[in-house]
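Holo prediction. Input below; ligand is C2E.
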Amino acid sequence: AKNRSGVTACFYRKEMDEAARERKSIRADLQYAIARGELKLHYQVQTSALTDEVTGYEALLRWTHRTRGLIPPDIFIPIAEESGAIVEIGDWVLRTACKTAVQWGRDKIAVNVSGVQIARADFAESVHSILYETGLPPNRLELEITETALIADKVRALHTIRQIHALGVSIAIDDFGTGYSSMQTLRTFPFSKIKLDRSFTHGLDREPAAKAILHAVLALGKSLGITVLAEGVETLAQLDILRHEGCDEVQGYLLGRPEPRESALAANISVAQL
Ligand code: C2E
Ligand code: CA
Ligand code: CA
Ligand code: CA
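Structure of the complex:
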């Protein structure tokens, strides 16, 4: 038995070494991802729950590594945050998304922002200069921020968010309901949109609790004057419930997957022609 557990321990250790090596190599390659042209944005449509009208698009980052292939953002974003590469990548994302929105000439563009970016003293300034440089009207930009990204240094985050809000850019709270003091965050920051986390959407046709929470969040949104968008809508049954309950906006595979700029634009045009 002793021998066996020794083998197991050795096996785990090897796995851990392997994982650490992989992280390290991803971390090293991330610094060149922009220069090598390996980063790309996909765009996922957001629509009005009732009318299907397009309200905006969320930009989602894709990294095609030259040997590893597609690496999901859930894997490389945390590594980029740790190494600081997220600052340059985040600027690239913002600039690229704003340029695309200018070319489209309409609809809002929603961009995910990391806590590491918000913690920087010059973040509001870089948002301002990217808007200026690309010519995107500030009211067509929305920044999506998770609660976790705001609470590390709340005082500074609040200062930065207020500056950005004053530019005319709107702010959405992302993954709503998964943080640990969502009500406090909602009370403090000038959000114009709540993005209800997809775990609630997925529970809608099965769990009474998920529906009750949706109901409460919609009431909250209404009385605070904040738009509520349900994330991760995959089935018609979910969409029916969301419509019936009076949810404002929806996003998810049912309405459209994240797509490259060209096909997202084509979808945009065909929706407009309906
Ligand atoms: P998120 O901001 O919550 O983005 C929504 C994620 O859900 C996306 O995954 C999207 O592809 C996926 N999704 C959309 N509709 C559905 C659906 O109906 N069902 C399911 N199961 N999933 C759906 P993705 O693109 O892999 O991104 C994962 C996370 O990576 C994002 O979560 C966001 O936190 C982060 N991320 C992506 N792009 C960026 C970026 O440019 N900057 C930063 N800081 N983070 C990013
Ligand atoms: Ca998001
Ligand atoms: Ca989300
Ligand atoms: Ca998320």
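The longest helix spans residues 2-33. That is the main takeaway for now.
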